[in-house]
Amino acid sequence: MASFSTFFHGQMTGLEITCLQSFLDYGHEVDVYAYGDCGSPGHFKMLDASLIIPADRLFFYKAGFGAGSPSGFANYFRYKMLEQLDTIWIDSDVVCLSSEWPISSSHLLASWEDSDHINCAVLQLPRHAASLCRAEAERLGEDIGWGQSGPFLLTRLLKELNLTSHVFPPAVFYPIHYREWYKPLMPEFLGEVIERCENSPAIHLWHSMMKYSNFDNSLLPDDECFFGQLVLRHGTAGYFRPCDKQEYRVRLAASHKMRLPE
Fold first, then answer.
1. Which domains does the chain have, with CATH numbers?
2. Whole-angstrom Cα distance, residue 192 to residue 183?
3. How confident is the model at residue 258 (pLDDT cuts 50, 70, 90)?
4. pTM for this predicted structure
5. Does residue 211 contact residue 184 with C-beta atoms inside 8 Å?
């Protein structure tokens, strides 16, 4: 069993609830930090995010990919949290697939998302590394773009600290690349996703790509796709908006054909 923490702002949908429920169902502990009510189920352990950072520090991306998203703030929040607490950060769109998680003697738990960047959707850092990341995120401030205080910052600093040898390959936490975000949601890729996740303790579902592609993730997923089967396994179907299978497939197919950001 491991202890995890996350930050959430807004109103939870079935996607986030399924992801967080998956950790609980595998016997892990999860603390969810938020500013006020975010529509979480009553059995989730909710904590005041002001314990980490005052609410008046919350900010959102101003333009470009992710405009209006608090993800830049969440980057700063995770570094500040990891500087203070002995926990593993998870984004709220990460699904747990196992009760067994890697244990790192270096207190570094992270995975490359591809050959270029270390992602921070699943992250544990040594305190000194977390402090450096937090300080750099503060220096960058609020007028930043997508990824600037996240994977770009994290990858650069872990390289400077000579810690990249401790970082896991993409298959551990990112078996499905963000350019393939639609595959866990489409029945025709069920076998491929199962095979690629066979040795992964978690999978990142890339909610930001769903939003960018105008896909409504509040829709009940097809029960013949990978994520749909996870919804059945964790008993969270009631948190989604009912949707005809054919409508779901048509809307998803239209979304994943959009040109992705470079």
1. 3-166 (3.90.550.20), 178-256 (no CATH)
2. 8
3. low
4. 0.94
5. no
